[in-house]
Design brief:
Two copies of one chain form a homodimer. The first copy, chain A, has about 450 residues and is an alpha/beta fold. The first copy, chain A, folds into two domains: about 140 residues, 3-Layer(aba) Sandwich (Rossmann fold); about 250 residues, Rossmann fold, CATH 3.40.50.1100. The first copy, chain A, is built from 19 helices and 15 strands. Chain A has a seven-stranded mixed sheet, sandwiched between helices. A four-stranded parallel sheet of chain A has the order 8-7-6-9, sandwiched between helices. A two-stranded antiparallel ribbon of chain A has the order 2-3. In chain A, helix 6 links the parallel strand 6 and strand 7. In chain A, helix 2 packs across helix 11, helix 5 packs across helix 6 and helix 6 packs parallel to helix 8. The longest helix of chain A has 20 residues. Chain A is globular.
């Protein structure tokens, strides 16, 4: 056995610092804006997040130490394996070498615990006792519940009602880890009660759930509750960079100085950023690396949206963020990759695209599920619907390498497994899956409503 | 960070041979018996299994080479990590060092692919094109479908109807890997049609599904179909011993010459055997190791059943096997650990118990789910209901070590994750879970029916 399938790192080789892309952007990051279009100050965020995370959010420091206590928990599954996709390469007949970073090995099954553990730990350090958050399909709520169990924090998750009813298993994961999961809108918050009064039968939405989670945090009279977000924000991107930093060490172990192509799927941006930002650092410093964000064709934030200031949520509770956005009232088509159904994009990822440090591809879900099936039958692991977007993009690049006869190194992020999301595969296999057109007129009318908003530089 | 959470092996350190316990038993294994009470010959098994696996089934050789082609697939997830349960130890306040072998990292989520890959490969080598099997909750059907996809064999799974209807996700896993999964009883076999005629609304049973799978294999006119079994048989135990062989190397890496206690949960016996047999080898050669099989209180094969000859299935299709058995008509109570609901026990495990090389513990499912919850909240991974039996036993031993003030090394097999089995946790957490009494009179009346069967030595 001369070939090596999995490239492992010892725990002692796990990175000791996270990488912050902010100081390496080609133009400075636009600040988030509050009421009246004025930049948000750290103090204004203090009721929502603990100050130690706010400091990370606005930090200009390139390298930030990972506390040893966090490292001691991350080793429950990290460093994650880097895997050579020999069986997939063979099926494609490509000369490309395909590697994937397997983030599905975490207890919650995705990359989400990388930041959930860190956020829970910083909150605990700051004296916080309870965290609130929202969740759609449940990946993030499960990851934060896991983190709360390990760190010793209560976690309350507002889960969009339609998912709460349709996806009982993710709710059970949260409860198994001791998290409290309630359907949103709920009667526990004023925001929830207002909605229920008007629309008693509403299926809920991520926007409403965010409103409830923030309200539940800031109205706790003891001041010991804070809110936690699983993507979009700078400190979330930061915590995920351990993925790419590990991948660089692992590629070096097999003599690869740099990959030719780096790919991640993009919803809010966190798993993409986690893998890609450390390679963008190399790119800024002269390396020739193609970096691709793969997004759903039906939610084309990176490929079709303008770079503007917009709210992160439907209810306009968040500050205005500088990002590519389809408009915060955009309701994405019901594709199975629930984690990619987001109207905006992390400001750091948006800045990287604007600066030309990355490119984007929009892919229909049928091509993604086809890629997911081929991956399952070759590499064995059944990917999450979100992850299939990265796989489909990697397959496109591998086929291109075949046409060009080039032995490229392609690296992608295997962000999560699909064991809790098999219904999408069933629909694809039984011919019940639809692709959704790019909703040009709907996006235009949503963007129309943002006229008068300030514009980023 | 001085402490080491996960002990890894390089792929080059993965064992190159399986260990066969047969030659090391204190008394020779009783042969399986066919019609008229005569020992089964290899030729009689030829329509059911390929000859290369039959050779393994009857082999007296202690070490059997693992073909390189099988090793090249096993590395998709092997060597599996050996994990030190620091967080669990801390919660228990025990001086014991607890280690677990994490078999949940396989694509199918359990130890089952260790033998599924091997069986599929040997069948393919023998020129077989199709495999049939039965499955209850679906773990084994999923593992064999995964193996079929990788090796290039068609797989047809007869799934007990009640599970087929209640557990659609395991069925979808099989289909995602290209397996065909049909509800049993089906109209595809004579056995199925006979049952359906008499009982059109039957929920099915593992016994019926075995009958259908064997019939579908042996009646294929092309002769290119064989049957595959996921536990009980000697060659299945053999393929699983890679677990314990890896664990020994891993313990040696942290300076542990031998564990004091080795624990696995017992249904048909395969995950227990996989971890324990290599340590039984040491025990036979003088090492002082306590080896414990943990079984459900409601299905007390090892703790309450006699050592007899009995059929492996309800329909009496299989040869008579020398084993501890509650009687092949015994229908275990509907506990959530579906994989442990078996009336018999692998002949090799049975022989080890009879020879005094191991002991057994019977545990109620409420104690097991309590252990599973504690494990989830400390070590992070949510265990399968089957696996919680091994965890509950390990916790008992760790508490005993605390009382005795002894720094014991406890090793158990984490046979699978529980992401597809969360309903049991829900019932436990909401107080809807029942424990089941040991059904003494029912077992006695089932055993009564076996009067006149030959008796093993």
């Amino acid at each position: 056995m001369t070939r090596l399938k999995k490239i492992l790192l010892d725990e002692s080789e796990m990175p000791r610092q996270w990488y912050n892309l902010t100081p390496d952007l080609l133009s400075p990051l636009n600040p988030p804006l509050g009421p009246g279009g004025k930049p948000i100050t750290p103090e204004m965020l203090a009721p929502v997040f603990p100050m130690n995370l706010i400091e990370q959010e606005v930090s200009q420091q390139r390298w930030i130490d990972i506390p040893e206590e966090i490292r001691n928990i991350l080793v429950q599954w990290r460093p994650s394996p880097l895997i050579r996709a020999y069986e997939l390469e063979e099926a494609l007949g490509t000369p490309a070498k395909i590697y994937y970073k397997n983030e599905s090995v975490s207890p919650a099954g995705s990359h989400k615990p990388n930041t959930a553990i860190a956020q829970a730990w910083y909150n605990k350090q700051f004296g916080i006792k309870r965290l609130t958050t929202e969740t759609g399909a449940g990946q993030w709520g499960a990851a934060l519940s896991y983190a709360g169990a390990l760190i010793g924090l209560e976690v309350k998750v507002f889960m969009v009602r339609v998912s709460f009813d349709q996806k009982p298993f993710r709710k059970l994961m949260m409860q198994t880890w001791g998290g409290t999961c309630i359907a949103s809108p709920s009667t526990e918050t004023q925001a929830g009660r207002n909605i229920l009064e008007k629309y008693p039968d509403t299926p809920g939405s991520l926007g409403i759930a965010i409103s409830e989670a923030i309200e539940a945090a800031v109205t706790d009279p003891t001041g010991q509750t804070r809110y936690s977000l699983g993507s979009v924000l700078n400190h979330v991107m930061l915590h995920q960079t351990i993925i790419g930093l590990e991948a660089k060490k692992q590629l070096a172990k097999v003599g690869i100085k740099k990959p030719d192509v780096v790919i991640g799927c993009c919803g809010g941006g966190s798993n993409f950023a986690g893998l890609a930002f450390p390679f963008i650092y190399d790119k800024v410093n002269g390396a020739d690396i193609q970096i691709i964000g793969a997004e759903p064709f039906s939610c084309p934030t990176l490929t079709k949206a303008p770079f503007i200031y917009d709210h992160g949520d439907v209810a306009e509770m968040t500050p205005l963020l500088p990002m590519y956005s389809l408009g915060h009232n955009f309701i994405p088509a019901p594709i199975h990759a629930g984690g990619l159904r987001y109207h905006g994009m992390a400001p750091l990822v948006s800045a990287a695209l604007k600066d030309g440090l990355m490119e984007a591809q929009a892919i229909h879900q049928s091509e993604c599920f086809e890629a997911g099936l081929l991956f399952s039958k070759t590499e064995g692991i059944i990917p999450a619907p979100e992850t299939t977007h990265a796989i489909a993009s990697a397959i496109r690049e591998a086929r291109k390498a075949k046409e060009e006869g080039k032995e490229k190194v392609i690296l992608f992020n295997f962000s999560g497994h699909g064991l809790m999301d098999l219904v999408g595969y069933d629909k694809y296999m039984t011919g019940q899956l639809s692709d959704y057109e790019y909703p040009e007129s709907e996006i235009a009318s949503n963007l129309e409503k943002l006229k008068g908003y300030p514009l980023p530089r």
